[in-house]
Amino acid sequence: MSRLSDIQRFYELLGGTWGGFGDHLRLDQCDGRMQWPTRGVYFFFETGEERTTSGTGPRVVRVGTHALTSSSRTTLWHRLSQHRGVAKTGGGQHRGSIFRLLVGEALACRDGMVSETWGRGSSPGETARKLRVPRAAVQEAERFLEAVVSRIIGTMPFVFVRVDDPPSAGSARAVIERNAISLLSNFAKDAIDPPSSAWLGHHSGHERVRASGLWNNEHVDEEYDPTFLDVLARACSNTIGARSTALLSKASPAR
Fold first, then answer.
1. Beta strand pairing status for 25-26 and 40-44?
2. Per-residue pLDDT tens for 181-205?
3. Per residue in 123-140, is it b (16+ CB within 10 Å) or e — as a string?
4. What one-character-per-residue DSSP string does 30-67 give?
5. Cβ-proximal residues to 218 (8 Å cutoff; 6+ apart), any chain
6. For the whole model, what pTM was predicted?
7. What is the CA radius of gyration of the chain?
8. For the chain, what are the domain ranges?
């Protein structure tokens, strides 16, 4: 089997689970009251980013999961909420989300924003100590960019597959995440479904983002194991009920 046929199968599996992607979700329309599965793998799309080689429809631009260490208790929704940011204020914390960090860095580069603090330090407090400025000054300097990143990521369609296995680096979630990224990545490969000329990621300072066409910085340069598609197929078959529950609770009035 070729990489092209494996990518086609990948999209057939996900699309078959999510109504041809017509049943996608959006973070700016989601909250913790929805009935999320405890654990899973998520796949983000982006407006204007379409498949052009493997078929038609939206192309995946970000793959992720959570709880890959035995001590982690992070749930699927908790990880997604870190990417979404704070719904009420529109703010966020890019130091807790590589996705947010990468999008913000590319946005700042494209729009000529100067940020001496973005991506620096593990917390606003640590950054403030390094720069010898008040913590509030760091937060204020990042406030606008965090808000724009929240708007961008919040409107990106996404889907998930339910994989409720124990936290572990060898979990089925890790297998799906790592191999899906490696499969979809165009890093040092013949491009399949390359990003559009307008894709924000072209402005990233990270070569792995630019060359892969993904908002991922890990696993993009690795070889994939095609047998992971069988693991993904099983995850997809376990997701139908979780998908329906999430969609129904999303449509229900907030209690």
1. unpaired
2. 999 999 999 999 999 999 999 999 9
3. ebeebbeeeeeeeeebbe
4. --TTS---SSEEEEE--TT-B-SSS-SSBPP-EEE---
5. 181
6. 0.94
7. 18
8. 3-250
